[in-house]
Specification:
Rossmann fold; 2 domains
């Protein structure tokens, strides 16, 4: 890569406001390849100018003076690479996004799971065995946590005697900075989006004029972890584990082979009878999978067959 960057003079550096370097098309291709190799994120040609802004901003923040210096840093220093990933995967999000899916969750999916768990509990009791009803939910690609907390709120509002259940809602994202925000449970009011008023009243505590804090009872059933969805060994540990998975507007960052791999992995992570919700435009007809398509109103979601 010796000749793959353009050196600039001191005056040019001040005029351009950059970190002593200018990215070429070859540089952008090399950086995209590095990101793809490390975490399989893919960016179409239409986003070249946006990528250039991200890479330039990141290089400027690190005060890198040449492309080689910058490339070496993000290739060898995990912290540098994580900061880059945080920059290019930051997404605007809010509570109860795509409310029609939460309507389906409340009106059909959770009642079916509750009924199934009740039957399993009765069978166990009839055999003289103890059984605690449980629910496992995964918000995959949760950004800064609003989706995860929305799921937890909907579950608490729907299940009677929720404290008698073992409920865990996991939020994961590749963006470490977003996960740190999620752990605090503190958000600007502008992130409330289409949150139903009763949810705000029960589960979100107003703090100052522009901030809300997630209630402790919601935080108690949630966990947050940094996770790359292409980390197949970690995904393998979730096999047959989740009753519900929300993975929305995540596949757009992957190319077709990686999308197929993700759909297969998510299917494996569902328990028999479990449900998968994807984002708008992320219908799964292009991929091989064992899931049944379910249409309800304006919502399309997927169910794994019972064994």
């Amino acid at each position: 890569m010796e000749n793959s960057f353009v050196a600039v003079t001191h005056d040019e550096h001040r005029r351009r406001g950059m970190a002593g370097m200018e990215l070429t098309a070859e540089n952008i291709s090399a950086l995209k390849a590095l990101v793809y190799d490390r975490c399989h994120l893919s960016f179409p040609r239409g986003r070249e100018s946006q990528l250039r802004r991200w890479f330039t901003q990141h290089a400027k923040e690190g005060q890198h003076r040449s492309f080689e210096d910058y490339y070496r840093a993000i290739s060898t220093k995990d912290g540098e690479f994580e900061r880059l990933i945080s920059l290019i995967t930051t997404r605007e999000t809010y509570f109860f996004r795509m409310p029609e899916q939460f309507d389906v969750l409340r009106g059909r999916v959770l009642p079916e799971i509750i009924n199934g768990e009740g039957k399993r509990a009765m069978k166990a009791l009839s055999r003289g065995e103890s059984y605690r009803t449980n629910l496992r939910v995964w918000s995959a690609g949760c950004a800064s946590g609003q989706e995860t907390y929305s799921l937890a709120m909907q579950i608490l509002a729907t299940i009677r005697y929720a404290k008698a259940w073992d409920i865990r809602v996991l939020g994961t994202d590749i963006n470490r900075e977003g996960i740190e925000v999620a752990k605090t449970g503190r958000y600007e009011r502008m992130r409330l989006g289409k949150t139903p008023p009763q949810m705000i009243e029960r589960y979100l505590e107003p703090r100052a004029a522009s901030e809300v804090w997630v209630a402790d009872e919601v935080k108690e059933i949630t966990d947050f972890q940094v996770l790359n969805l292409r980390d197949l060994p970690r995904m393998e540990s979730f096999k047959n584990y989740f009753d519900i998975i929300f993975c929305r507007n995540v596949m757009i960052y992957f190319d077709l082979p990686a999308q197929q791999g993700l759909v297969s992995a998510l299917s494996d992570c569902l328990r028999p009878g479990g449900y998968l919700f994807t984002g708008e435009g992320e219908v799964l007809h292009l991929y091989e999978h064992p899931l049944e398509i379910v249409e309800e109103g304006e919502s399309i979601y997927y169910r794994k067959a019972e064994e």
